[in-house]
TrEMBL record, chain A:
Family: Belongs to the sigma-70 factor family. ECF subfamily.
Keywords for the protein's UniProt record, in alphabetical order: Sigma factor, Transcription, Transcription regulation
Domain RNA polymerase sigma factor 70 region 4 type span(s) in chain numbering: 107-157
Residue intervals of the RNA polymerase sigma-70 region domain: 18-83
Entry protein name: RNA polymerase sigma factor
GO function terms (MF aspect): DNA binding; sigma factor activity
Residue ranges of domain DUF6596 in the record: 176-277
The organism of origin for this protein: Microbispora catharanthi
GO biological process: DNA-templated transcription initiation
From TrEMBL, chain B:
The protein's name: YCII-related domain-containing protein
One Pfam family here: YCII
Domain of life: Bacteria
InterPro entries: Dimeric_a/b-barrel, YCII
Family statement: Belongs to the YciI family.
Organism: Microbispora catharanthi
Gene3D superfamilies named among the record's database cross-references: Dimeric alpha+beta barrel
Chain ranges of the YCII-related domain: 26-97
SUPFAM superfamilies for this protein: Dimeric alpha+beta barrel
């Protein structure tokens, strides 16, 4: 249960509470109404009301019940003509249980491969994470109207083209999970690459990405790549404090103050990754990228970096998912591994000379 | 909707008779495999047989050729009875002939 928060509510707290509850509400309403678009409208309305009122009034003690009440009342008003929905909504009481399957269905529907990537991202942020169209627009530096249009189009497509509201069949699952992971990964990149000053006013997409990855890893315990992506995001975030200097300029990895890295977070993320990798023995691009990030994060100094190990991970990554960027990174790792080796040779020679 | 490309038409043309027969057999097999889902299908004659009539003001304008000049042309369609888009995608994935398939709900 949340403590009632009064007075000034920080954006971060507001975002966290909305994210935690909006997706659940969406999942339960879609199941109830059997209509993705109608449910989404109600949730969006409730979220927008909350974003307007909570900053001044404080976050209610039961945010989920509050959102639910607004959505239900609004639903009874708006869906007047749809007697079927009205009857269903009138019966609904809180708390409505939201099985795992419902949340998964919601995510897979938002990330259906027939939707364009931008539509998948906008829909996921809005339906699963509870962002308003204005917040999405601010995060991607595009006009709010174009985000709203994108979402309307995606919803219409999902309804009229017959995108099913369900968890994909076993044989489609790997491909569909990959689609969801890509959406989360892009979201993370978008948030991670913008500097703190740029996003001071906007909602932090990195929080949303991490939250989504955690949700997915939790809902899909048999998919090691979901855990891999979560570990990757957490490893990057653990080094976040050292990434920008006082003037908000990016600091290169070699120059970062490693004392500012969050050691505990690094250990936990590495443990998560190791567990996923050992349990399933199905390496994938996210687990490998996380493994590379872990190598960097565990090195006490830049010179201590285990480039030989990193090189092995890059080779595996290239084998699984060849890309020019990966090739470039591998080349850098190769060069640094070479330097490391040469440094090691000099060190050994020195040692040999010093030893009688 | 099945959509042919210029490249595909050329490839088909360049095939030997045996190869062509194999290609047609694959299409026949696809229709047989999905017979329980296919309610109706039509193969259109090649695009050079098309005539387009533009209605509007005054006398209709009749032109020789398809309504859109392009490298990709609709060559036929099959109507399938499926529960949702995923099922349609699954059927379309195994289509053995022309390289583009467009899926649309029909009423």
């Amino acid at each position: 249960m949340n403590e009632p928060v009064h007075g000034q509510v920080s954006q971060k707290v507001l975002a966290r509470v909305v994210r935690e509850h909006a997706g659940r509400l969406a999942a339960s309403l879609v199941s109830l109404l059997g209509d993705f678009a109608a449910a989404e409208d109600l949730v969006q309305d409730a979220v927008e009301t909350a974003l307007r009122r909570w900053p001044a009034e404080g976050i209610p003690e039961r945010p989920d019940a509050w959102l639910f009440t607004v959505a239900r009342r609004r639903g009874l008003d708006v869906l007047r003509r749809e007697s079927n929905y009205r009857a269903k909504l009138a019966q609904l009481t809180w708390p409505a249980p939201v099985p795992h399957a419902d949340r998964l269905r919601l995510i897979f529907t938002c990330c259906h491969p027939v939707l364009s990537r931008t539509a998948q991202i906008a829909l996921t942020l809005r339906v699963v994470c509870g962002l308003s169209a204005a917040q999405i627009a601010a995060a991607f530096l595009v006009p709010g109207s174009s985000v709203a249009q994108r979402i309307t189009r995606a919803k219409r497509k999902s309804g009229e083209a017959g995108i099913p509201y369900r968890i994909p069949a076993e044989e489609e699952l790997p491909q569909r999970v990959e689609e969801v992971l890509t959406v989360i990964y892009l979201l993370f990149n978008e948030g991670y690459l913008s500097s703190t000053a740029e996003r001071a006013q906007a909602r932090d997409l990195v929080d949303d990405a991490e939250w989504l990855a955690a949700l997915l890893a939790n809902l899909l315990p048999k998919e090691p790549e979901a855990a891999g992506l979560l570990a990757l995001i957490r490893l990057h975030r653990a080094r976040g404090a050292a990434r920008f200097d006082a003037q908000d300029r990016l600091v290169l990895l070699a120059d970062q103050d490693r004392g500012q890295w969050d050691r505990q977070a690094i250990e936990q993320a590495t443990a998560l990754l190791t567990r996923a990798a050992r349990t399933h023995r199905r390496p994938g691009p996210y687990q490998l990228q996380a493994a590379i990030a872990a190598c960097h994060a565990e090195a006490k100094t830049f010179a201590d970096t285990d480039w030989a190990q990193i090189l092995v991970f890059y080779d595996m990554l290239l084998h699984l998912a060849p890309s020019p960027v990966t090739r470039l990174h591998r080349a850098i790792a190769l060069r640094l591994a070479g330097l490391h080796l040469r440094a090691a040779m000099i060190w050994i020679k020195d040692l040999a000379r010093a030893t009688p | 909707m099945f959509i042919e490309t210029e490249e595909f038409a050329q490839q088909l043309e360049a095939m030997g008779e045996l190869e062509q027969q194999t290609a047609y057999a694959a299409v026949g097999k696809w229709f047989a495999d999905h017979a329980d889902k296919i309610t109706h299908h039509t193969h259109l004659a090649p695009v050079h047989t098309a005539t387009t009539m533009r209605l509007g003001q005054g006398e209709p304008v009749i032109t020789d050729g398809p309504f859109v000049e392009g490298k990709e042309v609709v060559s036929g369609f099959a109507e399938v009875e499926v529960a949702d888009l995923d099922e349609a995608l699954k059927i379309a994935r195994s289509w053995p002939a022309c390289p583009i398939v467009e899926i649309r709900p029909a009423s």
